[in-house]
Amino acid sequence: MRKRRLPPLNALKGFEAAARHLSFTRAADELHLTQGAVSRQVKELEVELGQDLFVRHTRRIELTAEGEQFYRVVEGVFDELERAALRLTRRRSDPAITISALPTIASVWLMPRLHLLVARHPEIEARIVSSIEAADLLAHDADIAIRVGRLPGRRYERGQPRIELPMVTRWDGVHADELFPDRLVPVCAPALLTSDVHEATDILAYPLIHTTTRRYAWPDWLRANGVRYEAESDPHLQFGHFFMALDAARQGRGIALVPDILLAQDEVARSLCVPFSSEIASAGEYYLLIHESRMEDSRVQIFRSWILDEAVTLRTRSFTPMAE
């Protein structure tokens, strides 16, 4: 068998990080090295290959044509090696699958249904963690993520309520299943309403409950319904997450704007009403996100099949308790 003629692996690591960041300094921070050490690694690789990989300017670097071509190869090899190592490590070290879900989706929709999965598949151990941060599905913190946002390449209409939350750190190799659309509806305690709400503008007679993770929800929704909204005149009752806004609405503190899927939970639907219904979809949807390196795991496939069935059931339900 012939001996492999590979470039120095440490030099490849330094080159890949520098090419990805287009910075020796940021690459050094990532690798816990000095900037000079990364620069020397790259120079060693250039000597080994007999090619300049970077053009070095005074305050920046850029890849040469040869460097760009070589980077694409190295990036692919490193990604595949990372995925293979991750598959082996997870199978050995953790019998549970970890699902990273948005806090409100986790507490209001996913957790109350999880017993259905366990009853059907008692061999599945699922761990739920709450987060609104972009999921890093190549890291060890989650096998599956549930997020809301814009799918790359999908077109949205101008005027749809914005969703600013990033779903993943990198889309390479990520498989996305749409769970349900994001449609915002106003909800409040029935006792709050002192008069009929015939139009969206009538809502402005009541305090509005804002959610900081979706700061444009009310302004965009009102604008989409033809209502001029002056933020300066709004007292801005704010809460960190939708489940907090729901609790404030139950207490009669104002009208909250929340995704209609949250009303699928009977406990929520019984205590709130929708004073004005609108079918305007936001510029984004809820997605089940799985990296391709995890798709072969039977536990992941079982969870994926189950939650997609649950999402279909949810989409066919009517869950808009209107004010009488």
TrEMBL record:
Keyword Isomerase assigned to the entry: answer is no
Q: Which family does it belong to?
A: Belongs to the LysR transcriptional regulatory family.
Q: List the PANTHER family hit by this protein, alphabetically.
A: HTH-TYPE TRANSCRIPTIONAL REGULATOR, HTH-TYPE TRANSCRIPTIONAL REGULATOR TRPI
Entry keyword set: DNA-binding, Transcription, Transcription regulation
What's this protein's name? LysR family transcriptional regulator
Regions crossing the membrane: none
HTH lysR-type domain ranges (all copies): 7-64
Query: Which CDD domains does the entry mention?
Result: PBP2_GcdR_TrpI_HvrB_AmpR_like
